[in-house]
Amino acid sequence: MRVLSIVTNGEARFYKQQVRGLRERGVEVDSVEIPGNRPEHTDNPERRSPANYVRFYADVFRRSFDDYDLLHASYGLTAPPAVLQPNLPVVLTLWGSDMLGHIAPLSWLCARGADEVIVQSTEMAEKLGRSCTILPHGIDTERFEPMDRTESREAIGWDQDRYQVLFPYSPDRDVKDYPRAERIVEAADERLERPVELQTITGVPHERMPLYMNAADALLLTSKREGGPNAVQEAMACNLPVVATDVGNAEMHLRDVEPSVVSDHDEELVDGLVDVLSGGERSNGRRIIEQYDLESQVDELHRIYQRAVDDS
Edge-to-edge strand order for the sheet containing 163-167? Predict the structure, then answer.
């Protein structure tokens, strides 16, 4: 099978892992990325100029006449040339942010013209209102696994005598709502005997992320919106308790994870964080997240590809 894969960011970690897995299964994948300056963050892929998209759409349309079996469009803004070309069956992956805000109508319209649609959560599937497959990004459970907390803290230099709460993003990313995370941690700190530190991450190589997950006492996610936050799944793979706003697939993943909390109310998030920190227990997340490991995700994506080709 030969696939034309069109994306906003070909360097995104989950995308590169996905392509690698598909190629290991014998699928030829040619990636085409929207030209121009790549957005600083993948949750804002619409920053490129209209001229970039015109060139991109024309290139995709031209290449759809080449010897491909399938076209896979990732994110709503890549979808128009995919569903308008007349030659190839189309798989469309929606991330979550593309079903909100000013590009939502475009994503919804294009979803009607795709042969197969992939979404990240039950919430997205219910809103979409057409047949689709819920397929969150796969997690490398061999890399992300439980490790000794004391040794992990020594490796990254965190204080052993404080509660450590991990906010796995840059404070500058508005959609992640760092000020809310600060408020929640400050409120929890006032109720606990040991000090609580909020740790942010910027520019940390992905291969070192398991150390941070295992060094923390809890992961705090306060995002305003998400599709499928990988950090939640990575924390689960490390048995790190998660306290999160009800965004994307957080509730779907954490429904049976103990201890963990999902809520849109600050009071409940503070209460949950206090309970997690004072209890000091790791979660049962790894047992639950194993069904979403990277190998299983790529296997399912391969099956979706095959179904789209067979039905065309």
Answer: 196-200, 163-167, 218-221, 242-244, 261-262
If you average pLDDT over residues 144-172, what whole number do you get?
Answer: 96
Sign, CA dihedral 86-87-91-97, equals: negative
Q: Which of 133, 64, 139, 34 is nearest to 93 (CA)?
A: 133
Considering only the C-alpha atoms of the chain, give the largest distance between any 2 of them, rounded to a whole number of Å: 66
Gap between the terminal Cα atoms of the chain: 14
pLDDT at residue 47 is higher than 70: no
Under 8 Å between Cβ of 200 and 171: yes
Q: Mean pLDDT lowest for which of 156-160, 172-176, 272-276?
A: 172-176
Residue showing tokens 């079903």:
99
Which residues share a beta bridge with 166?
A: 199, 219
Q: Is 159's pLDDT higher than 90? A: yes
Q: Which residues pair with 221 in a beta bridge?
A: 244
DSSP codes, 63-109: HTTSS-SEEEEESGGGHHHHHH-SSS-EEEE--SGGGSGGGHHHHHH
pLDDT at 37 over 70: no
Strand partners, 219: 166, 242
pLDDT digits (tens, 9 = 90+) for 248-299: 778 888 888 999 999 999 999 999 999 999 999 999 999 988 777 788 889 9
